[in-house]
Amino acid sequence: MIESLSTRARFSFQFKAMFIPARFLALSLLSLLLCGCKDSSSSPQSVSQGVPLQLGGKEIADRIARKAYSHTETILSFGHRQPESAGLDQSRAYVIAELKKHGWTSVEQKFKKMTPKGEIQFSNVIARYAPNPGQNPWGRSVTGVLAAHIDSKILPNFLGADDAASSVATIVALAEHLHKNHPTAAKQLELVFFDGEEAVGPNMAFQVDGLYGSIHYSRAVQSSVAQAISPYKKAPQFGIVLDMIGHKNLTIKIPSDTPKKLARSYDAARSKLELKNHFGKSSGSFLDDHYPMIVIADIPTIDLIGDFSANKWWHTSADNMDLISKKSLSMSIHMTLEILSNHL
């Protein structure tokens, strides 16, 4: 996460009509296509045809939340997830291994980038559903993207339980649920775990510091779509970014410039699920991983992000497992399932 809502707002509209130099379009997608894990051989259930898609209600969200809570504990046991750290490597390996158990093939999208602290090697994890041996999921287009950042900010004694281990853990738990209960929906999704969301220096600035993984991913999507080649012959139709969704005092506030169709879906969901006390709207826009997805990759994306603006725990050692609540995770999961059901 970045410094503050006011910090984000300074940059939010400045780059809406930005020009992307041609040199950025010549990105290699080779690593995306070649470094995936082998497919799982499990056989998921079929999805009923001819009925509106419903990926899960409250009881299902509660069950997924318990698994997400456990995954969060495991990720934190590896230590901090600062750039190029052992804890970050272990977290990526854990995510890839857990996804593989449930039919998801993962690739690491590696790249180097100059930062205020010198050149750093980053690596996004990208996964698609391919439960049967020999399947190549990278030849097909996907409808939606579900994403979170896997790194933690460079701060002493900072683990980032809610920022954003809980979001990573939630996506891993959702991947298992979709595999076991909704394989057709799973095939329409791409899961992304961004590296380098956090600024290396004190403050985030678009294309200067921070959002390294989401910018690199979005340029790769843009390049692939522009050439009409796999793995993105056409851009995904929507994206959902999760960030700080497990805090015991859950207050989600989506940015004011959320794409209209997703904003309507969000409004309908928080009314239907009776979650208006926990899911609101920010009065302004801000920088997070959804932003490059919108302005570079042209993927309409909603950012389900916890409001940290008045919380002393943010970017401190207090962001630990004590903050994480299964009830909050369940509410965030229920909301995510509802939005996915409306857009897949």
TrEMBL record:
<dbReference type="Pfam" id="PF04389">
    <property type="entry name" value="Peptidase_M28"/>
</dbReference>
<feature type="domain" description="Peptidase M28">
    <location>
        <begin position="124"/>
        <end position="336"/>
    </location>
</feature>
<keyword id="KW-0808">Transferase</keyword>
<dbReference type="GO" id="GO:0008270">
    <property type="term" value="F:zinc ion binding"/>
</dbReference>
<dbReference type="GO" id="GO:0016603">
    <property type="term" value="F:glutaminyl-peptide cyclotransferase activity"/>
</dbReference>
<keyword id="KW-0012">Acyltransferase</keyword>
<dbReference type="InterPro" id="IPR040234">
    <property type="entry name" value="QC/QCL"/>
</dbReference>
<dbReference type="InterPro" id="IPR007484">
    <property type="entry name" value="Peptidase_M28"/>
</dbReference>
<protein>
    <recommendedName>
        <fullName>Peptidase M28 domain-containing protein</fullName>
    </recommendedName>
</protein>
